[in-house]
């Protein structure tokens, strides 16, 4: 498989109106090593610097960076940089053609990783399997329909039926909220895909990462104008995970860089933590750049 190379910069800056005496955090900012993705360089820098940091793999194999900054500060800057080679994933036409009912992990004890996939068929806090989600997916999951065809149709319908609107939702938006507003962002559309397909017993995981964007014709790339991205991946028995991007109505390809996956956004936010401070106000600034390399 041919691969595309990218240099990624992801800067997160927290600013406070008073000193923070102690900041404890977890960051999911290191891209994963995968059969279709190779990380050739990566670094994570904290300002103020701290020696109290460590890395570990979480339950799903994501790299989690734990840190504590005890030097008083009014600005915390977290800069993650990496270089990645990404290829398109390949899937078997035969595997995608099986009836969707037989792609449910609970029905496939004969498949080695079915027991692990089952975790992604269960409801989670941000992807609740609501009646609306079940009914919405049922329109595409007709009896005996090929799993690949059915889940791609759900992706395309979500893209068509829900508007992209950065002002419509927040990181705590529920599936009911998404149906009510008929709008959201990539995170919401991923959660909606999870809720719809999981409600019928399919295993679907939430994936966070980056999408290399292309500037309009005649325009130069604007450095730092990219953003984090989210999509969904459906378990296909014996053939891995079929990654779907309902935000852009396409299968995930070599323009995507995978950082982490979990049951939903709450498992793998870029940065989360707690602080000790008397500050009354704070601001958050995020700058992401995904630059193609020759």
Structure characterization notes:
With 294 residues, the protein is α+β, with helices and mostly antiparallel strands. It has two domains: 4-86 and 269-293, Immunoglobulin-like, CATH 2.60.40.2250; 93-267, Roll (C8orf32 fold). The chain is 17% helix and 39% strand. The chain contains six helices and 14 strands. The strands form three sheets. Strands 1, 2, 3, 4, 5, 13 and 14 form a seven-stranded antiparallel beta sheet that branches. β9 and β10 form a beta hairpin. The chain is globular, with a radius of gyration of 20 Å. The relative contact order is 0.24. The model has no long low-confidence stretch (mean pLDDT 95).
Structure in a nutshell:
By secondary structure, the chain is an alpha+beta fold. Helices cover 17% and strands 39% of the residues.
SSE topology:
Elements lengths: L3 E24 L9 E11 L5 E5 L5 E7 L3 E14 L6 H4 L17 H4 L13 H8 L8 H15 L1 E2 L10 H7 L1 E2 L1 H13 L5 E8 L16 E8 L5 E5 L4 E2 L4 E7 L8 E7 L4 E12 L1
Parallel strand pairs: 6-7
Antiparallel strand pairs: 1-4, 1-5, 1-13, 1-14, 2-5, 3-4, 8-9, 8-12, 9-10, 10-11
């Amino acid at each position: 498989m041919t691969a595309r190379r990218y240099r990624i910069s992801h800067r997160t800056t927290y600013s406070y109106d008073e000193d923070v005496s102690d900041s404890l955090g977890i960051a999911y900012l290191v891209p994963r090593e995968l059969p279709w993705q190779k990380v050739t360089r990566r670094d994570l820098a904290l300002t103020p610097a701290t020696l109290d940091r460590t890395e570990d793999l979480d339950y799903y194999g994501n790299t989690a960076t734990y840190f504590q900054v005890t030097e008083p500060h009014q600005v915390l800057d977290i800069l993650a940089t990496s270089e990645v080679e990404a290829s398109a994933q390949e899937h078997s036409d035969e595997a995608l053609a099986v009836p969707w009912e037989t792609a449910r992990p609970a029905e496939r004890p004969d498949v080695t990783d079915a027991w692990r996939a089952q975790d992604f068929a269960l409801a989670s806090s941000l992807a609740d399997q609501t009646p609306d989600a079940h009914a919405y997916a049922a329109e595409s999951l007709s009896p005996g329909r090929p799993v690949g065809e059915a889940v791609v149709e759900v992706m395309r319908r979500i893209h068509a039926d829900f508007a992209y609107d950065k002002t419509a939702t927040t990181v705590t938006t529920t599936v009911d909220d998404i149906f009510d507003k008929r709008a959201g962002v990539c995170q919401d559309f991923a959660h909606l895909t999870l809720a719809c397909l999981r409600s019928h017993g399919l295993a679907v995981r939430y994936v966070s990462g980056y999408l290399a964007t292309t500037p309009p014709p005649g325009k130069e790339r604007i450095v730092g104008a990219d953003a984090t991205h989210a999509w969904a991946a459906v378990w296909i028995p014996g053939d891995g995970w079929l990654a779907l991007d309902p935000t852009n109505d396409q299968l995930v390809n070599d323009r995507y860089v995978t950082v982490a996956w979990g049951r939903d956004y709450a498992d793998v936010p870029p940065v989360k933590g707690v602080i000790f401070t008397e500050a009354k106000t704070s601001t958050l600034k995020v700058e992401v750049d995904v630059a193609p390399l020759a």
